Amino acid sequence: MAEENNNDAFIDTDKLIFGIGQVQQITGVSGRQLRYWEEQGYIHSLSQKKGAAREYSMHTLFFIFHVSRFLEQGFTLQAAVDKAKQLDQQLPVLRQFLKSQLQGVSTDADKSLIDFGYLDESHTKRVYGVIEDGKTAFKIEEVHGE
Description:
alpha+beta; four-stranded antiparallel β-sheet; two-stranded antiparallel ribbon; 4 helices
């Protein structure tokens, strides 16, 4: 696998904007619920002009999705928001790790490999994530004369 790390492959999600209708369609949350959550301070739409439809960032769309998912699992609205906030704090850490470590992905009919790069600074072993038959695992391989 290529050793080159191309971080440009990640989309700048701050530039993805969704209208309230799209958010309803994607998340299944009604416009009435969205407005209520906004009134309660749980979510925030982007600054809007007088009379314009509400718009939400990709970040807020994901937050809404997670709140909705936790509500479906039986949590109260406040507990669902709290759990979504906790998840929201973890996602940037995961994104930073993947952005800096991801070296490439290869797939074939029965197996996919995610190249996480070298195990350490000695550059003698590489770490791979393996997905095969719906199961995931890690694999460490010795590097021979790259």
